[in-house]
Specification:
Layout (H helix, E strand, L loop, with lengths): L1 E5 L2 H18 L4 E4 L6 H14 L7 E4 L1 E3 L9 H8 L11 E2 L6 H11 L4 E4 L21 E4 L2 H7 L13 E4 L2 H5 L3 E6 L5 H9 L17 E6 H11 L1
Parallel strand pairs: 1-10, 2-3, 2-6, 3-5, 6-9, 9-10
Antiparallel strand pairs: 4-8, 7-8
Helix pairs in contact: 1-2, 7-8
Bound molecules: fructose -6-phosphate.
Amino acid sequence: MIIKIFKDSEELGTALGHEFVEAVKENPHIILGLATGSSPLLTYASIAKESQERGVSFAGVKSFNLDEYLSCPLEDQTYRAFMEANLFSYIDIKKENTHFPSATGLSGYDEEIKEAGGVDFQLLGIGRNGHIGFNEPGTPADSLTHVVTLTESTRVANARFFRDDLSLVPTQAVTMGIGTIKKSKRIALIANTLDKAEPIAKLLRGEKDLECPVTALIDHPAFEVYLTEEVDAAVQKLLA
Ligand code: F6R
């Protein structure tokens, strides 16, 4: 595990966006694993800006998003809509090369990823309970793409995207499993807000704990954790 610490979210996003653009430049047919939520927003902005400035094309890139809601009542809050709004509309990735898991194609998603050659570079955020994708505490470390019932805390955390109306927040989602994520060749995880300090502290303690899903990545051979100084300071306090 490599820990990278940045002054603030902006510097973090710029640096990680650069890593992605470099990876695409090196391998124009790279397979990317992508996340939604607040954590990667500045990384996506940086990918959009740098790839435009440097003329790096995403036309040969394939992407597989981590998760998607089931029965999302607000069309503009689906994760596909999120990716369109925050990344896809700014780069030349082909729509047919962008993939999202769905309840109808459950077993097919892992197969599709495998057939594409496997995820080369996976971007992750982290939930305040340590979830990755929508793999909530207790999810087996070898799980593949599956349907999940969202926990109350995750729904409350996401209500801000649903007019702060909990009744509009979907109750189920489809997510890559922890086993799916672990197969990625390189993983970059962002923790840029203080509410992520606790699961990051658990991760840095280095003990696998089914109740903190991110700890399943402890022994991944190419796992990078991107922290802001503020988060790092809070983590160090918890570890002291
Ligand atoms: C989203 C996802 C989730 C988020 C996590 C953190 O695709 O996989 O695991 O990364 O819930 O969300 P934010 O970044 O909004 O704090």
